[in-house]
Specification:
Blueprint lengths: L1 H28 L17 H12 L1 H16 L20 H18 L10 H27 L3 H8 L4 H27 L1
Helix pairs in contact: 1-2, 1-3, 1-7, 2-3, 2-4, 2-5, 2-7, 3-4, 4-5, 5-6, 5-7
Length: 193
């Protein structure tokens, strides 16, 4: 009986670690779909979507750990940031605030949605709130850092780092709202089992 409990605990720990690594890898892969905008130093990527999904699907701690793992890999030079680049200097550049925002988004979405549990469904309004808040908190440190680095006014910072991304993020948000409930149930089965 004791060996069975140990095996179940080990299996759960391996599954949790694997899922954290998977979402770190997905967030990293989002860098390879980078569309540069000619008027902004901030490209369009899927990284904010995967950072948000990390929190929604894994919960705040595991989702935050996945994004933290992604950020650590990038800081150490792995080519996981937009345009397949890496290095600690990115945190001090024009897009550094967005990188921090990814971590805040995973934590925020995870806190609002809660940790996935097999026997507990999450309401649609709560998912929508988690998605909206998650996307919004990416932009707070992102636009602030952009304003500081470019030494510009708030209107210009918003025009370069927020407004051009709203339509794309709305589409990403709709996709997340549609797929999150099913992915949360699947994750709960794996994480609780």
């Amino acid at each position: 009986m004791e060996n069975q409990i140990v095996r179940r605990t080990n299996r759960r720990a391996i599954t949790q670690t694997t899922m954290v690594a998977l979402f770190a890898a997905l967030t990293s892969a989002g860098a390879f779909i980078a569309i540069p905008l000619p008027f902004s130093p901030v490209p369009i990527t899927l990284q904010n979507l995967f950072a948000l999904l990390s929190g929604l699907i894994l919960g705040p701690l595991r989702g935050g750990a996945a994004v933290a793992l992604f950020l650590i890999a990038g800081a150490l030079g792995a080519p996981v940031f937009a345009g397949a680049t890496g290095g600690f200097a990115h945190f001090f550049g024009a897009t550094g605030g967005f990188l921090l925002g990814y971590l805040i988004a995973a934590l925020t979405a995870g806190l609002i949605a809660g940790r996935p549990r097999g026997n507990r469904r999450i309401s649609l309004p709560r998912i929508i709130l988690a998605v909206l808040a998650g996307f919004l908190v990416v932009y707070v440190p992102g636009v602030i850092r952009l304003k500081i680095v470019l030494d510009t006014d708030w209107g210009k910072a918003l025009a370069l780092g927020f407004i051009p991304f709203t339509i794309g993020d709305a589409l990403k948000g709709i996709a997340v709202v549609l797929i999150a409930p099913r992915l949360r149930r699947a994750a709960a089965e794996q994480l609780d089992g």
